[in-house]
Amino acid sequence: MGKRIGAQTVEIESKPRIIGTYNIVGPKEGQGPLKEYFDDILEDDLNGAESFEKAETSLLYTAISESIKKAKLKEVDINYLLAGDLLNQLSSSCFAARDLNIPFIGLYGACSTMAESLSVGSMIMEGGLANYVVAATSSHFSSAERQFRLPLEMGSQRAPTAQWTVTGAGAMVLGRKGNLPYITHVTTGKVKDYGIIDVNNMGVAMAPAAVDTIKQHFMDTGRKPSDYDMIATGDLGVIGREFTEKLLLEYKYDMKGHYMDCGEKIFDPLKQGTNAGGSGCGCSAVVATGYLLKNMLKGKFKRILLVSTGALLSSTSSLQGETIPGIAHAVSIEFGGE
Amino acid sequence: MAFVVGGIICVIGQILMDTTKLTPARILVVFVTAGVILGACGIYDVIIKYGKAGGTIPLPGFGYSLAKSVMKEVDEFGLIGAFTGGIKGTAGGITAAIFFGYIMALIFNPKTKE
Q1: Beta strands in chain A (DSSP E)
Q2: So where are chain B's domains?
Q3: C-beta separation of A183 from A16 below 8 A
Q4: Shared domain check, A23 and A159
Q5: Paired residues of A135 in beta bridges
Q6: A155: which chain B residues are within 8 Å (Cβ-Cβ)?
């Protein structure tokens, strides 16, 4: 049975394995520096659907069903589907789950959903309540623009500092057996709000949450940055990543050489015009199921910490002048270390 | 000249978008309101005299028409013209915006930005 260590971390003793993963991305992500790590790259980001929202649903459905196939399982074998996205009422996840024969729990953690669903999935596995769990999430540039900024039909200009929502979906199947990457620790973050109002500056709004969770993870586990081959925050972007590194150094944690940000890594800002970098639930999902886990299987990384970060604003709250609360959840994954 | 005057107005808008946190909707309101004020003071008449369509087509031109139509209507019908004049004078522009907006929405679908 797992146990609590420190204030916010649980040790997952049963080591649930990540037995199947799948990711699917849009054309822009497919031209980025991480293209070789994606399982499927769309040529048209509508994916044959009538609307961007339907397209996002189809991406999530594909990621989930293909990850189950990769784990050599059937839908009926899966005990829980844990999924979330950025749209109102989690519509992409609910509509994808409508076509799946799996008990479904919807999770909202904004862009932290990959680590959040993986955390909750690991806890369910640790409790012995499931044999197989799927954790999945998605985002789509054009549906997110409508949800949080302005509909594309308006044809308005984007602010130069705005991050670029990743079009993509990623899914992971957790199981009990196999010589595969496994989850060892889960650190659940607290909501942190340092009073940032600018919705085009979300990396900086989320950075304090990332710092808090990473710091707490080190305090709870007694680990330090050099114990990890890679610590990956979700979507802080260039500015947020630099800010996080600086703040952690103030707490005497030197992240140099052990730290990356999925949002910064997924696009080439100069060639692709993405400014601060990528964002969205799909960002850390496709980088985790792609670059991070595939490099673990190759033996390049033995121990990683996935820290997905979320900005918990709504389009109503920002119009009412509310500040942007941030959250970050951390999941420690190991493979072939011992 | 029309190109230069219209261009300057648009450049002001672009500078506001790039350097301030004003949303496009707010800039729109600022431009129309500025047109109303400049029109009421008579300054915009000078801009239109030299700029012609370069002054009337951008957003402040709409504000200018609002102001001028109200002034004309008040002269003719008294204070009630402050309520009726603006929409009467700009009816053509408003109807055209709705009509062509609808047609465009029927013909085209939005595409993801590159």
Answers
A1: 3-5, 9-11, 17-25, 40-41, 80-84, 104-106, 133-139, 164-165, 168-175, 182-187, 230-233, 259-261, 278-279, 303-311, 326-334
A2: 2-107
A3: yes
A4: yes
A5: A82, A172
A6: 110
Q: Nearest C-alpha of chain A: how many angstroms from B107?
A: 12
User: How many Cβ atoms sit within 10 Å of the Cβ of residue A100?
Assistant: 18
Same domain for A208 and A231, yes or no, is yes
Regarding whether A160 and A187 lie in a shared domain, the answer is no
CATH number where A203 lies:
3.40.47.40
For residue A112, the one-letter residue type is S
User: For chain B, how many residues are written?
Assistant: 114
Q: Tally the domains of chain A.
A: 2
Q: Give the ipTM of the model, two decimals please.
A: 0.80
Q: Please tell me the distance from the alpha carbon of residue A115 to that of residue A90, in angstroms, as a whole number.
A: 17
Note the pLDDT tens digit of each residue in A140-183. 999 999 998 888 888 777 776 678 999 999 999 999 999 999 99
Q: Do B113 and A198 touch (CB under 8 A)?
A: no
Residues A22 and A165 in one domain: yes
- Of B18, B110, B112, nearest to A153 by CB-CB distance is B110
> Which residues have CB under 8 Å from B92's CB, separation 6+?
none
Q: Please judge whether B24 and A153 are an interchain contact, meaning their C-beta atoms are less than 8 angstroms apart.
A: no
Band (pLDDT 50/70/90 cuts) for residue A2 is: confident
Domain with A218, as residue range(s), is: 182-334
* Together in a domain, A214 and A271: yes
Residues 6+ away with beta carbon under 8 Å from A304: A228, A229, A230, A231, A232, A292, A296, A332, A333, A334
